[in-house]
Amino acid sequence: MLGSKCSNNEDMNPMFIAILNDPSVKEQNKTNSSYYRFTNDTRYHYEFKYEFSSEIKNNDHRLMILLNGRGRICADYWKFAVGRRIISALRASGFSILTICSESRIFDIYTPIQSNIELKMIYESIQIWINTVYYRRFQCYPRLYIHGISMGSVFGTLLSRVLPIQAQILCIHVGHDAALTTRSIYPNDMQTRLVLDPTYANWFYFDFCYNDKTKSAHNRGLCPFQSDANHFYTVPPTCDNNEQRGTCRCTPVNFTYWEGFPDITCTWTNEQQAQHHDYIRDVKKFRGTFCEDICGDLFTYHAMGSRNIQKALNWITELDKLRHSLKIKDYLTRPLRIWMYSKESITKDAKRFLSSKIDWTSISKRYEIYSSEYHLQDYLNRLRSSTSVSRHNLIWTAEPLLADYYIIPSNLMFFYFETHPETLNETQLSSVYERLNNGYFYKLLMNVHNMFLYSTMTSTASLVGANHVIVLPDIGHIGFLYNKTQQLLSNVIKLTFTGTKQNILSPASKSLSGYEDTPVIFKYGYDIVMPPFTKLELNQNVSLNWNMSFSQKKRLFYFADTINHSSTIQSAYKHLSFLKRDLQQKKQYNKTTEIKGKLYETISIMSELILLSYGRRIYDTMQLGAIPVLLTDNIVLPFERFIDWRSFTIKRNINHLKGMIDSVKRINQFENYAKLKIEKLKSHANAFQWPYDYIKRDGRDKHVFVPKKDLKGSAKNAIHYIALELRCRRLEQFYGLTSDIFSAQS
């Protein structure tokens, strides 16, 4: 229904909706009305009269549902003094307003929730109105509150059990006893999330329970009116504004009249009793004027709905702050809940890929580092088999509705490297790209969006997919993804081991992926850089073997790769080629450098194409007990917020490459300096390890999980830091940080 026109009767059949403007209201406070008629029975014909706030700040959408007493119509709130005071206070506090009225001018407050036809029809009408009116206008759902007067208070408490009401203000009547006391049978985790997370609660009631996609879902029965179970929203916090009772009770005057016959009237004559009847009739008919004459406008019984309204609204604001802090506390004190789609469900229309056996050992060793695509999926499947066990503060949730993150299982890298792209010509590569885009990856992502609703569990439409994670090990190799495919990934958190800070690159820089027409999709501070899979086994006795290993080292710097990889002036390869030329011609540096009496070969540059990837070379350097030298400004390294890379690497701007040799010569106590760097490197070694290995089995290599590298989730390995990064990303989303908004708060 989302996006349909409210005024189109055919779209809304069998219900009729019309929108009318009230010309008597100023433009900035313009009201509209929608009419919902599910049947010919006028008892179930409703008017929704609403006014959107012009004071919405910081995307803080709050909507107050107003429910009046017997005999009232929606327009009364805008016409009479009491209603105008309520409306004025709501406007000043930035609330949008929705009044709901029945054509019969009465609500059914006597039938229990499950069998209350009127409650069900208003519930469904609100779902439609929220999606086709409010969401269409603002592209987000508002937090909901109820203000009820008299009978509206009673019905409001019923309505609050089938909608995500954050708080309710009840006036004159304390509410429906059963609605305020019946316990919800939602699981505790579900209740906690509904109460503390308005974004989730709104998504559940207005998207999941409303959308046709879920009508066959196994957990559809959790929605209101879908079963006989008490699947009710928990009782929201309630402000009972009922300190005054009686038809006319006021302060300091305490005037009360009786509508019945006190015992004393029994002694009256018939004429006196008739006069008393007339008196009572006139008081009941004109009690508004009567009470205001006696008590003053703000203290009369019928004016209680507006009494202390500002204090009640201030209470709501403080309540919202408390709820947010409790949500953060709950999030930080429990494991991160993970759920992963089954490959069968999201690749069912790509049978060729679904039937393919994923075996990274069948691909060249050159590409084994990309097998982290497989490792993370395998690790999460191991979590699935023990749903009650938390590892690395991650836990598999059997109920996908409760997941913090949804993992999209993809084998894109495997299918790409399976074709041995380095052996293909341009025409063959284009065919591979077409098959991987339209035949596999685009279908997979569309199935995630079309078959499930979890990606829309976000605060605004612009953030759809922000609670989803996918492993794309090397974004530099997926520049072949079509734009329509990349659009589906725009908010998905990508786990990769190559990333760049695009904001510090020259606008004239070429695409780092090598595909000129394809945007780089890595988002610094949003996507997560992880280490590739390597057999990194640093010598744990580095201190004992240091003297021997240091004495054996003959070169100061070493570089191995092709140095004509890029022609751009910013390229480190280009600067290295200049340096190699200068060394060969002895223009600036000698081929040897002496430090503290020891002679080193200054630099060895192996200018040849080697079967090592860029991401792998850092870790091979570590493996050799050498200090990695990073010749780039814009590289993003794994787990930067947790690991101080400066403590065990050397980083130089490529424009200062030639000065690097002189700077090393100036280091005091060079040997101790290098030793401390290596020891720091060793202390972080686990962060770059995956709990997997290749072993020989039945005469061939196989990927296997290595428990001793995980220690039941206590080892600070790559998965440990990925879990920390994901937790931080989620926390940033709670505070309103997105893929385009970052700050020091991170």
List the helices and strands and how they pair.
Blueprint: E1 20-21, E2 31-37, E3 45-51, E4 62-67, H1 76-79, H2 81-92, E5 96-102, H3 117-138, E6 143-149, H4 151-159, E7 165-171, H5 177-181, H6 188-196, H7 198-208, E8 238-241, H8 270-285, H9 287-295, H10 309-332, E9 336-340, H11 343-346, H12 351-354, H13 372-384, E10 394-396, E11 405-408, H14 412-417, H15 426-451, E12 468-471, H16 483-488, E13 493-496, E14 528-529, H17 542-552, E15 555-561, H18 572-584, E16 592-595, E17 598-607, H19 614-623, E18 629-630, E19 650-651, H20 659-665, H21 670-683, E20 692-697, E21 700-705, H22 718-734
Parallel strand pairs: 4-5, 4-6, 6-7, 7-8, 9-10, 9-11, 11-12, 12-13, 13-14, 15-17, 18-19
Antiparallel strand pairs: 1-2, 2-3, 3-5, 16-17, 20-21
Helix pairs in contact: 6-7, 17-21
Q: Could you explain the architecture of this structure?
A:
One of its GO terms (molecular function) is glycosyltransferase activity. It holds the Pfam family Exostosin_GT47. InterPro entries: Exostosin, Exostosin_GT47. This is Exostosin GT47 domain-containing protein. There is one protein chain. This protein has five domains: about 25-195, Rossmann fold; about 260-335, no CATH class; about 350-380 and about 400-455 and about 465-500, no CATH class; about 545-590 and about 605-690, no CATH class; about 695-735, no CATH class. It contains 22 helices and 21 strands. The strands form five sheets. Strands 1-2-3-5-4-6-7-8 form an eight-stranded mixed beta sheet, sandwiched between helices. A six-stranded parallel beta sheet has the order 10-9-11-12-13-14, covered by helices on one side. Strands 15-17-16 form a three-stranded mixed beta sheet, with no helix packed on it. α6 (about 190-195) packs across α7 and α17 (about 540-550) packs across α21 (about 670-685).
